[in-house]
Design a protein that fits this description.
Elements: E1 2-5, E2 8-10, H1 19-27, H2 40-48, H3 56-59
Antiparallel strand pairs: 1-2
Length: about 70
C-alpha cells in the first residue's frame, strides 16, 4: 500500500498464515510491483482472491516471468 509520495514509500502487511506468507517463507524471496491503471482489473482480482484456491495469473490473464 502507498504510504508516502515524498519520499516514495510503500508498506507490506502479511499474516503468517497467509498463502503469500507461506510462499515467501518457502522460497525466501519476493518482489514488489507497482502497477499502473492499465492493470486495475487484474490488480483487483489478485488482491481479493487467494492463490491457494485459484490460479490468479491465469484468471487475470497475466504472464509470470523470473524476477
Amino acid at each position: 500500500m502507498p504510504v508516502s509520495e515524498d519520499p516514495p514509500m510503500i508498506a507490506l502487511s502479511l499474516r503468517k498464515e497467509s498463502y503469500t506468507g507461506e510462499l515467501i517463507k518457502k522460497s525466501g524471496e519476493f518482489t514488489v510491483n507497482i502497477p499502473d491503471e492499465r492493470l486495475l482489473k487484474a490488480l483487483w482480482l489478485c488482491g481479493t482472491r487467494s492463490g491457494r484456491r485459484i490460479n490468479k495469473f491465469k484468471r487475470a490473464n497475466l504472464t509470470s516471468i523470473p524476477s
